[in-house]
Amino acid sequence: MFGRPISLFKIFGFEIKIDISWLVLAALITWSLASGLFPEYYKDLPLAAYWWMGTAGTVGLFLSIIIHELTHSLIARHYGISMKGITLFIFGGVAQMEDDPPHPKAEFMMAIVGPLSSGFISLFSFLLCNLGESSGWPVTVNGVLNYLAWLNIILAVFNLIPAFPLDGGRVLRSALWSWKKDIRWATGIAAQIGSGFGILLIIMGIVYIVSGNFVSGLWWFLIGLFLRSTAQMSYQQLLARNLFNTKKVNDLMVKNPVTVPRSISLEEFIRDYVYKHHFQTYPVLSFGKLTGCISIKQVASIPREEWAQYTVGAVASPCSEETTVGPDEDANKALEIMNRTGNSRLLVVRGDQLEGIIALKDMLALLSLKMELNDLEKNK
Q: What is the pLDDT of residue 1?
């Protein structure tokens, strides 16, 4: 994603969110449909009709992606997989899982239902289009239905390509997983194929750009980059989950972290702590007990000339679930909070006692070491 998504609504308990990048995609699609596709196939219509069709086609795409991702989420829920929700962004949509499927069958069912749902939407749109043509519906309505029918065929076929993280790649992973009984090995193979497919799209995009078709070339180039990076990231996330499932937060935390007394001024805080340690957020203590957190952003909201007048205690905010984690939690819990909030450091807290700090950089260093050891094992 490109930023913090905006929540739109909930359906069946799943939160539907939209990344700001989706608005860019929606505008581009509406423009291309209204100025290119529909005028090409349905000539001599008023300009307003083309823009109405373009807008309706974009809304139809929005609903098609929501239904596609919603079916993934419903099957995931059936198999006990926790889902964060569905987010639309510039490359489509994604149903955000908090864990891997429990077994190959769950992976297969969750993956295959997406293309099947797109196929069903396509068939339904074709039937409505035929009904509309026989019933004399306006050409603008039939044109949009015809577009949605073909669009969902393309979505279904593209998603069935056996390149992880596409649905077809997940079907492949389920088959390899069922065969070898090893999800890490299956994910590695499927991710390598997905990465290779991403490179192929990148090359295709460059060829298009060189041949003069800049817009199409740039689009395929970006999709290729996205698929390649997502495939590699998915494998790394699997390794991370497997590694951190065996670790507790107190195994990875730094004990006796840097703390700030609530009585010092903001000027002293910046001079003696921020300039010295370069952290973004600091725990605030009073008589050995945790009373809150203070961040650079909080200090920046106060005019520089007033820093000497304010104490850390006056500016610090209470610690929340977004900034803290318990010492006995799985390390994956800390990683999930970091991914959700964007915080790179969490306070490890028991009651009102600060026991340590867990940092993303330390977790990534451990993961990097684990991956290097895995590479050494492969090369033996």
A: 46
Exposure class string for 82-107: b at 16+ Cβ within 10 A, else e: ebbbbbbbbbbbbbbeeebbeebebb
Residue type, 288: G
SS (H, E, C) the chain: CCCCCEEEEEECCEEEEECHHHHHHHHHHHHHHHHHHHHHHCCCCCHHHHHHHHHHHHHHHHHHHHHHHHHHHHHHHHCCCCEEEEEEECCEEEEEECCCCCCHHHHHHHHHHHHHHHHHHHHHHHHHHHHHHHHCCCHHHHHHHHHHHHHHHHHHHHHCCCCCCCHHHHHHHHHHHHHHCCHHHHHHHHHHHHHHHHHHHHHHHHHHHHCCCHHHHHHHHHHHHHHHHHHHHHHHHHHHHHHHCCCEHHHHCECCCCCEECCCEHHHHHHHHHHHHCCCEEEEEECCEEEEEEEHHHHHCCCHHHHHHCEHHHHCECCCCCCEECCCCEHHHHHHHHHHHCCCEEEEEECCEEEEEEEHHHHHHHHHHHHHHHHHHHHC
The C-alpha torsion from 374 through 377 and 379 to 380, rounded to 10°, is 170
Q: What CA–CA distance (Å, rounded) separates 191 from 106?
A: 19
Paired with 256 in beta bridges are none
On whether the CB atoms of residues 173 and 187 are closer than 8 A, the answer is yes
What's the angle, vertex CA 109, arms to CA 104 and CA 110, rounded to 5? Answer: 95
Q: Is the link from the previous residue into 162 a cis peptide, with omega within 30 of 0?
A: no
Taking the C-alpha atoms of residue 226 and residue 62, their distance in angstroms, rounded to an integer, is: 20
Asked if pLDDT for residue 364 goes beyond 60, the answer is yes
The residues pairing with 63 across neighbouring beta strands, listed in sequence order, are none
**All structural domains of the chain:** 6-244 (no CATH), 249-366 (3.10.580.10)
Query: Which tens digits make up the pLDDT trace of 28-60?
Result: 889 988 988 899 888 888 999 999 999 999 999
Q: Report residue 82 as tokens.
A: 């926790």
pTM as predicted: 0.72
